[in-house]
Amino acid sequence: MGACNASQIVDLFPAVSPEIVVREARLEDCWEVAETHCSSFFPGYSFPLDVVLRVDRLMAMVMGFSIPPGCQRTCLVAVIGSSVDETICFGSDDFKIGAFDAKISLNKGYVAGILTVDTVADYLPRKGPLRQRRTGIAYVSNVAVRENFRRKGIAKRLIWKAEALAKNWGCRAIGLHCDLNNLGATKLYKDQGFRSIKIPEGATWPQPKTSPDTRFTFMMKLVNNNNTQALEQFR
């Protein structure tokens, strides 16, 4: 009998009602995060390109998560076969490698979904004639769920956790780009209270670096209801 890789092991779990825990990704989750990302966004690639993509994504996550001073970036994971109450971790809460918690768990579970949230503002329109980086707005990217675990509320729970982090960071709003052809994702975000923001005529806003044929809509949601100006400033 041959050895199973991580994605094959996940397939052995019942996909009906596994226990799902959303938490910050740890260093030990790196490969499964890379697998989830590549199998979701590049499903047509086969060996050896699929391995190359996973290794490239892994190195980007571990080595390329440099962020400007004062900014935050965290990778969230939804894991199955893990319980918050039963998990035993070793390591410091304050030490991170890239966007990953450096703690090690004896019961980490398997990654079923991922999401990245940050305050770096790379994909938010700059403000003023000096094109200053925007502050107080969290940005969500790389939302992906393994195929066997889709339509089970995992993406919704990842979004909830991202909103909680944004509030904890003191953000007034949270934003994201959504593929206009992905009707399921568009509905998900609208159901969670996100609104499409119209790009001013003649303006050029940054967009995720994907296929040139992909068309995005920029969506935002207030996470601090005391500030009603956050969405209006983007009109």
TrEMBL record:
Pfam families to which the protein is assigned, alphabetical: Acetyltransf_1
Gene Ontology MF annotations: acyltransferase activity, transferring groups other than amino-acyl groups
N-acetyltransferase domain segment(s): 20-224
InterPro entries: Acyl_CoA_acyltransferase, GNAT_dom
Domain of life: Eukaryota
PROSITE patterns referenced in this protein's UniProt entry, alphabetically: GNAT
PANTHER family reported in the protein's UniProt record: ACYL-COA N-ACYLTRANSFERASES (NAT) SUPERFAMILY PROTEIN (PTHR47443), GCN5-RELATED N-ACETYLTRANSFERASE 4, CHLOROPLASTIC (PTHR47443:SF3)
Name of the protein in its database record: Acyl-CoA N-acyltransferases (NAT) superfamily protein
